[in-house]
Design a protein that fits this description.
A hairpin with a 2-residue loop joins strand 1 and strand 2. 49% of the residues lie in helices and 10% in strands. Helix 2 crosses helix 3. It is built from eight helices and three strands, in the order αααααβββααα. The protein is mainly alpha-helical. It has a single domain, classed as 3-Layer(bab) Sandwich (minor pseudopilin epsh fold).
């Protein structure tokens, strides 16, 4: 299989006291690793072994016969983004390009956090909360279960796990307290800034690419003669 085993970007205890070592260990080993192991079993013999994780999620999303495989692959991908959305001694108001974009879209950082917290609280059951780049602006979306914006072609700026296993050991059923802690003490805005910078590089590269059907520097009118 062409997909590496998931790895944490920091030590299990590095997010304390905002997120306990027990929560991180339980979450990573009993949830993400289990999803990875089941994905590895299900992909065997399907002809999909050579795909990357992103390709596997996209290829199985609309296939009823591969529904379980999609669910496990999507959860592995989602969790990779979730871990990277946090850092030790993180949190605080958004800065850099993402801070500017959030103020433009929502009016202020405080209004953004209010909408994000409301979206997380309103979601019933398990799922994910995302900050994505859509139509030239940041948007807050929520997906059910293993749903992921990857299959919509949207660029993820941040991911927040809303499954109970993400917060039950530290906050019991108080999802609002978990979301507030994520924003105040954990979120890594550099992930979002990096994603926006990469989007800019891709757009610039596309703008500089020569038009299809005409060599670079050629006059396209010559093709009509």
């Amino acid at each position: 299989m062409n997909i590496e085993s998931p790895a944490m970007p920091y030590d299990f205890s590095d997010l304390e006291p905002a997120m306990s070592r027990d929560t991180v260990v339980f979450h990573f080993l009993r949830h993400q690793r289990v999803c990875y192991d089941r994905m590895r079993t299900l992909v065997r013999g399907t002809g999909l072994e050579e795909l990357t994780l992103e390709e596997l999620v996209r290829a199985t999303e609309r296939s009823p016969v591969h529904h379980a495989l999609y669910r496990y692959a999507a959860e592995v991908w989602n969790h990779n983004l979730f871990w990277r959305s946090m850092r030790p001694r993180g949190g605080g108001a958004a800065h850099g390009r993402v801070g500017e974009e959030l103020r433009n879209r929502f009016g202020s950082y405080e209004r953004f956090t209010h909408k994000l917290k409301a979206a997380a609280s309103a979601h019933f059951g398990s799922g994910w909360l995302w900050l994505v780049w859509r139509g030239g602006a940041p948007e807050i979306i929520v997906t059910h279960n293993a749903g992921t914006p990857l299959v919509r072609g949207e660029t993820v700026l941040l991911a927040l796990d809303l499954w109970e296993h993400a917060y039950y050991l530290d906050h019991q059923n108080r999802r609002a307290a978990y979301v507030a802690t994520f924003l105040d003490e954990l979120v890594d805005w550099e992930l979002a800034n990096g994603a926006l910078a990469e989007l800019g590089r891709v757009s610039e590269s596309a703008a500089q690419r020569p038009r299809t059907g005409a060599p670079a520097g050629a006059d396209p009118r010559l093709e009509l003669s």
